[in-house]
Amino acid sequence: MTVDHTEETLIAQLAVRHSISTDAVKAVLQALKAGGGRMAQFSHREFGGMAQWSSGMTMVGDIFSDSLKAKLNAIATELAEHLSDNPEALVRSDEVSYRSPLRPTSAAWWPAEFGQPNSTGAQNDLRYAIFSSARRLVIDDHGEHTVYDTGEHHISGISQAQSSGSTLTFTGQDGLVRVSDLKKVPSGS
Is residue 105 domain-resident? Predict the structure, then answer.
């Protein structure tokens, strides 16, 4: 990851302000750069392992630690603002050693007719892609794809239960949106 002097200063300031290592802040910054400055998915021990962030949604490995979620949210929000003000700092595709959720390869797993998703995410063998303009949500659960009509919901957040029967819930303009409340549609619809 390329870090300029301004970013080094910002990383150091955030580390001190939030009592966390510069390595942890760098992990958030790198993930944000790969996520187009709008989302991050990474793993770092100081965030309890796997963590995700996008505006309105914060998940950390220690799911019961509200203070850790608040710490990640504060750090990621400030770093996202920095990247918004400095778009030249975003990761170029040749700098990414893994597939970024916002820069999918031609081997995208969702139906091509939906175009590029507004948001994607994955954990374990469950992944999702949201297509706001097409009003569709595609979920891949262990290789089985299901397409849902999101109707009038404007999905802005995501939560995944960490139990053996992993489930997704979303946040829309009117609150919680359960996948079970959405209508399944044929894959090409």
Answer: no
The pTM score is: 0.52
What 3-state DSSP class applies to 136?
strand
Q: Measured in whole angstroms, how far is the alpha carbon of residue 149 from the centre of its chain?
A: 21
Distance from CA of residue 86 to its chain's centroid? 20
**Can you point out the beta strands (E) in the chain?**
39-44, 49-54, 57-59, 119-123, 126-131, 136-141, 144-149, 157-160, 168-172, 175-178, 183-185
On whether both 25 and 90 belong to a single domain, the answer is yes
DSSP H helix total and E strand total for the chain: 3, 11
What pLDDT does residue 156 have? 66
| Helix 22-34 × helix 5-17 angle, to 10° | 120
The CA distances from residue 157 to 52, 58, 128, in Å, are 11, 9, 12
Domain that holds residue 11: 5-95
53 vs 31: CA distance, rounded Å: 9
- 11 and 65 share a domain? yes
pLDDT at position 67 is 93
Dihedral sign for Cα 57, 58, 63, 64, please.
negative
Spacing of C-alpha 75 from chain mean position: 15
The residue type at 75: I
Phi first, then psi: what are they for 103, rounded to 5°? -130, 65
